[in-house]
Amino acid sequence: MNILLVEDNPGDLRLMREALAATAAADTVLHAVNSGSAALDVLRRAGPHAVAPVPDLVLLDLNLPGLHGMAVLAEIKRDPALLTTPVVVFTSSEASSDVLQAYRTHANAYITKPADFDQFVAAVQAIQTFWRLAARSPRGPGGGAGHGPRSPSP
Q: What count of other Cβ atoms lies within 10 Å of the Cβ of residue 60?
């Protein structure tokens, strides 16, 4: 499973790496970028990210430098080649307006980052279990997100 983490906070990136190390299957690969524009480049396999793996799941922070996470989400869901990519907003914001806007922009889920490490690990494990084992994908069972002809088959 290829996960794209869009996170500008080095502490949260470290926490995510630790949480995945504690819970992830051997074939889970985390690719992290620290800006919304870099996330779109990875998803579109553009510029320096032309050979980046196609993500099966995007974990998206909202408070990003430059292009805000909500704008990134809107761009993903507007692009026919990306619109079936599962996007989980994983952010510190508990604002009900952010939750509502994320779902109106077609986020697949909205999760507030827990402050406690054990709860953070549990949240990451729940995300991973759901998207790896329970959710169906346009690319088929266990196949990750659909990206049209650009996506390699599992």
A: 25
User: What are the pLDDT digits (tens) for 78-92?
Assistant: 999 999 999 999 999
Q: Which of 26, 12, 32 is nearest to 117 (CA)?
A: 12
The number of residues making up the chain comes to 154
What predicted TM-score, i.e. pTM, was given to this entire model? 0.87
d(CA 130, CA 1): 12
Number of neighbouring beta carbons within 10 Å of residue 61: 24
Q: Nearest CA to 109 among 80, 86, 132?
A: 86
CA distances from 121 to 24, 44, 126, 134, 143 (A): 10, 29, 9, 19, 24
Query: Taking the CA atoms of the chain, what radius of gyration do you get in angstroms?
Result: 14
Q: pLDDT, tens digit, for every residue of 120-145?
A: 999 998 998 898 888 877 754 444 44
Cα(52)–Cα(78) distance, integer angstroms = 21
Contact 59, 6 (CB under 8 A): yes
